[in-house]
Design brief:
Layout (H helix, E strand, L loop, with lengths): L6 H11 L2 H5 L9 H19 L3 H6 L3 E3 L2 E3 L4 H10 L18 H35 L2 H13 L2 E6 L15 E4 L5 E11 L8 E9 L10 E7 L1 E3 L5 E4 L2 E6 L10 E14 L5 H37 L15 H34 L2 H33 L10 H8 L9 H9 L8 H17 L4 H21 L4 H6 L1 H23 L5 H12 L2 H11 L9 H5 L1
Parallel strand pairs: 3-6
Antiparallel strand pairs: 1-2, 4-5, 5-11, 6-7, 7-11, 8-9, 10-11
Length: 567
C-alpha cells in the first residue's frame, strides 16, 4: 500500500491540543495563518507521498556505495532530493534574510514527521542541513552566514555534524581531533570522525562539515572544544565551489537499516576550516544543532511508526484467516485489534508531545520568555526518547500483525523496523536523554514539570463533568508523577540515573493521557473519545509501575558483578 501523510491528525493536534494559535498570534510568526499552514502541510504531504515514498524500497535494496572515492547514492535519490530542495523544504524554518521560509518549528516538525514516514533515509539529508543552518544562524560570523546560509537553505549545498570519534563514542570530551591557527582567519583541522550521516553524495555541489576539534593548549574535556566549518570544496571568491579540501570519505558503514543514507567515516588531514562561535565554545554551538536534531529525530520515530501502522492496518483488514470459505479477517481478532489500537494511541501521544515541544521552542524564539525556554528544554528529551521508543515498539508490533509474512522482505514491513532502530541511538541515546531529564532539566527543583502538571490537572478538572472516569485517571496519574518527582529531586545523581529511563517513560505516559483527554474534550462525538479511553485505561496505568522502579533508586543495581552476570 502507499503511504499517506497524517495531515489531518497533525492539523488537529496543532489546532486543538498544543496551542499553535499562541505561536501564530506572535509578531514573529504572525504570517503562519491557518490557511497558510493548511496549504504548507498539504504540499509537504503531497511531496512525501508521491515523490519520497516510492523511493523508499529502492534505497533499502540498493544502498549507497563508495566507488573510487565517490559516494554513489541509491536510485532516484538525486531526483527526490532535488524535489525537496526546489520546493524550499530544506529552509522551511530558516531565516528569510538568507532565503528561508521563516515558518515555525512546529510546522517543520510536522513536515519531518511526513517525510520520515515516507523515506527516512532520504529525509536524513535535509534534517542534518537544517540543524547546521540553525547552528550557523546562531553562532557564525556574518561573513560565514552570507556565504554558506543561502547555499544550504536552497539545498545547493548540504551540511553534516562531526562529533563522534572511534575511541570516544558518547564521550565527546575525549576527542583527539585538532585544529591549528593558520594566521589568516582559517584553521587546519585534522582527525577522524565516525557515524557521519550523509558525509557525501554524488548529487550535491558541496558538503559542509561542522567539526568539533581542540586547539593547542586548550583544556581537556568538553570545555576545551571548538567548532569549525570545513567544506568539502573550498569556496572561490565568487562563492562557487573551488579546489578540493584535504578531507575524504574513508569508508561507508554496512548497517542494519537506513541503507539509502550513506554513513561515513571521515578523515580530515589539515583541512581548511573556519571557527564557528568562540574558541572553546564548540559544545554550546553544537548543542544548538543537536537540540534541533533531537526534536527532528523524535519526529522521525513517529513518522516511521505511522508508516508501519498504516501497513499493518491495511494488511489486517485484508488478510483472511479461519475455516475454509470463511470471510473473517484478522482485524476482528482481539489481539490484533489490541495491537492496532495501541499503535494508533501511542502515535497520537508521541506526536502531541513532539509538537508541544516544537510550540514551546517557537514561543521561546518569539517571546524570549524563560518559562517557554525551560518547557522546551524539558520536553526535548521526552519527545526524542518517547517518539523513538514507540517508533521501535510499533514497528515491531507491525511485523507481528503480519505474522510470518512480516519476516518476509517482499512485504516491506521489516524495512521500517530495521530503519527506525537507529533513532533511539543517534543524536544522544535514549538513556542519555533520560539522564539529561533527571539531571540538567531538574536543576530548577522540578518547577518546570510542576507547572506542566498544573495544566494536566486543570484539564482533568475541566473534564470531570463529561468524562469523569477518564478525568480522575489522568488527575491521579499527574499527582503520582508529582509525588515521584518531589522524591526524585531529593536524591543523589546515582539514584536519579538508576531510575532515569522509567522516569522519562512515566512522564511521557502522563503527558500522553493529558493530550488524549484534551482530544476527547475537543471532539466529544468522535472516535477520539474511544481512542482516549483505550490509552487512559490500558496504557496510562504503566506510569505506576514505572514510577515504582524510580523509587527503588540505585539500591541493588550493582549487587551482581560482571562475573555474576556472565555465570
Amino acid at each position: 500500500m502507499s503511504f499517506r501523510s497524517p495531515i489531518q491528525d497533525s492539523q488537529f493536534i496543532l489546532d486543538k491540543i498544543v496551542g499553535f494559535s499562541d505561536v501564530s498570534a506572535t509578531e514573529r510568526f504572525g504570517e503562519a495563518t491557518p490557511d497558510l499552514v493548511e496549504a504548507i502541510l498539504n504540499e509537504a504531504g503531497k511531496l512525501s507521498d508521491e515523490v519520497m515514498a516510492p523511493l523508499n524500497a529502492a534505497g533499502d535494496a540498493t544502498p549507497a556505495m563508495l566507488e573510487n572515492g565517490v559516494v554513489r547514492t541509491s536510485p532516484g535519490f538525486a531526483e527526490g532530493f532535488r524535489a525537496i530542495a526546489e520546493g524550499g523544504w530544506v529552509g522551511v524554518t530558516a531565516d528569510p534574510e538568507h532565503g528561508g521560509m521563516g515558518l515555525p518549528q512546529a510546522i517543520g516538525t510536522a513536515i519531518t514527521d511526513f517525510m520520515s514516514g515516507a523515506n527516512l533515509a532520504l529525509q536524513l539529508n535535509p534534517l542534518l542541513t537544517q540543524g547546521q543552518i540553525e547552528a550557523l544562524e546562531a553562532h557564525a560570523s556574518d561573513t560565514l552566514k552570507a556565504l554558506y546560509l543561502p547555499k544550504l537553505i536552497s539545498g545547493e549545498w548540504s551540511g553534516t555534524m562531526n562529533l563522534t570519534e572511534p575511541h570516544a563514542g558518547s564521550d565527546v570530551g575525549a576527542l583527539r581531533s585538532t585544529a591549528t591557527d593558520n594566521g589568516d582567519g582559517t584553521f587546519s583541522v585534522s582527525g577522524q570522525k565516525i557515524f557521519i550521516t550523509w558525509g557525501d553524495a554524488d548529487f550535491m555541489a558541496n558538503v559542509c562539515h561542522l567539526v568539533l576539534a581542540r586547539l593547542p593548549d586548550a583544556p581537556g574535556g568538553t570545555k576545551g572544544i571548538s567548532l569549525f566549518l570545513v567544506p568539502k570544496l573550498l569556496p572561490k571568491d565568487d562563492g562557487t565551489p573551488g579546489e578540493r579540501n584535504s578531507l575524504r570519505v574513508v569508508s561507508l558503514e554496512h548497517k542494519l537499516g537506513i541503507h539509502g543514507s550513506p554513513t561515513a567515516v571521515m578523515e580530515f588531514d589539515g583541512a581548511k576550516g573556519w571557527l564557528v562561535g568562540k574558541e572553546q565554545g564548540g559544545m554550546a554551538a553544537m548543542f544548538t544543532m543537536m537540540n534541533n536534531a533531537r526534536l527532528g529525530v523524535a519526529a522521525q520515530g513517529i513518522g516511521v511508526a505511522e508508516a508501519a501502522f498504516q501497513k499493518a492496518l491495511a494488511y489486517a483488514v485484508e488478510r483472511k484467516q479461519g475455516k475454509a470459505g470463511g470471510t473473517g479477517t484478522i482485524v476482528e481478532h482481539a489481539d490484533v485489534r489490541r495491537m492496532l489500537t495501541a499503535m494508533k494511541a501511542d502515535i497520537f501521544a508521541a506526536r502531541s508531545i513532539a509538537l508541544a515541544c516544537a510550540v514551546a521552542t517557537d514561543m521561546t524564539h518569539a517571546t524570549g520568555e524563560a518559562d517557554w525556554k525551560s518547557r522546551a528544554a524539558l520536553l526535548t528529551p521526552v519527545a526524542k526518547a518517547f517518539g523513538t521508543d514507540i517508533g521501535v515498539s510499533i514497528c515491531n508490533e507491525a511485523v507481528q500483525v503480519f505474522g510470518g509474512m512480516g519476516f518476509i522482505e517482499e512485504t516491506g514491513i521489516a524495512q521500517h523496523l530495521r530503519d527506525v532502530r537507529i533513532t533511539p541511538i543517534y543524536e544522544g541515546t535514549n538513556g542519555i536523554q533520560a539522564m539529561d531529564l533527571v539531571a540538567r532539566k531538574m536543576m530548577d527543583g522540578g518547577d518546570t514539570l510542576y507547572r506542566l502538571l498544573d495544566e494536566v490537572e486543570a484539564t482533568a478538572e475541566a473534564a470531570r463533568a463529561t468524562q469523569p472516569q477518564l478525568a480522575e485517571s489522568v488527575w491521579g496519574a499527574a499527582e503520582t508523577l508529582r509525588e515521584a518527582t518531589e522524591w526524585l529531586v531529593g536524591q543523589d545523581m546515582d539514584a536519579r540515573f538508576a531510575g532515569a529511563v522509567p522516569y522519562l517513560k512515566a512522564v511521557a505516559r502522563v503527558l500522553g493521557g493529558h493530550y488524549h483527554l484534551k482530544a476527547a474534550l475537543a471532539e466529544p462525538e468522535s472516535a477520539r473519545v474511544a481512542l482516549a479511553r483505550f490509552y487512559i485505561q490500558r496504557l496510562l496505568p504503566e506510569h505506576a509501575s514505572l514510577l515504582a522502579q524510580v523509587r527503588v533508586g540505585d539500591a541493588g543495581l550493582y549487587d551482581l558483578s560482571p562475573d555474576d552476570l556472565a555465570a
